[in-house]
Design goal:
binds S-adenosylmethionine, 6 strands
Length: about 180
């Protein structure tokens, strides 16, 4: 996954210059072979030329970013927070990385990756528990909504998964020091 992403992001590809066949390997639930082997052209969205300061970092979120306290104005997490073994640590780090007034925008389900793993301890908080945790660490949820979303799947397959996603924007609020 990282090698592929590295190639897409650093090879200065022209729009739609390459293609991949992301649905070629699963054979179940196929209606037409052309659905299974269809090409997806990449890159469909060009990052080059954008004024955004873009970087890709490989590693454990909790380790890679721990030295960047209060360096970020915004953090976006998409289908990510449920990858945590301990979501409390993710949220505490997101809070620490943001400057006061900075925002955390999140979307995704809570399909905890380590739930039920016998050898991996895992904390699976509910939406209402995450709301409380955010408040406790100093992240004020300003807006939230539930929606429906698929994730990286073959829309022509006979098997479709739709997640009920929770999206919110939380802001790091100033703490009153007595
Ligand atoms: C469901 S994918 C979402 C990827 C992307 N945000 C998207 O929306 O397509 C979860 C991602 O989190 C990454 N991930 C899992 N655990 C991680 C960790 N501890 N630190 C950093 N990344 C992690 C996985 O490698 C994977 O790329």
């Amino acid at each position: 996954m990282l090698l592929t992403a590295e190639m897409f992001l650093t090879r200065h590809l022209k729009p739609n210059e390459m293609h991949v066949c992301p649905f070629a390997l699963p054979f179940s639930n196929t209606v037409r072979l052309e659905d299974q082997f269809r090409k997806v052209h990449i890159p469909d969205v060009m990052i080059e030329g954008s004024t955004a300061d873009f970087s890709m970092v490989a590693g454990d979120f909790l380790e890679v970013y721990e030295d960047q306290q209060e360096e970020w104005n915004a953090i976006v997490t998409c289908y990510f927070i449920d990858t945590a073994k301990n979501i409390v640590r993710y949220i505490e780090l997101i809070h620490a990385l943001l400057r006061t007034g900075g925002v955390w925008v999140n979307t995704g389900p809570l399909l905890y990756h380590f739930e039920g793993h016998a050898k991996e301890p895992s904390i699976e908080l509910s939406v209402e528990e995450i709301r409380l945790l955010c408040k406790r660490v100093g992240l004020e949820i300003e807006h939230e909504q539930f929606g429906e979303s698929t994730y990286a799947q073959n829309m022509h397959s006979m098997h479709q998964t739709v997640y009920r996603t929770w999206s919110f924007r939380a802001r790091k609020v100033a703490v009153n020091v007595q």
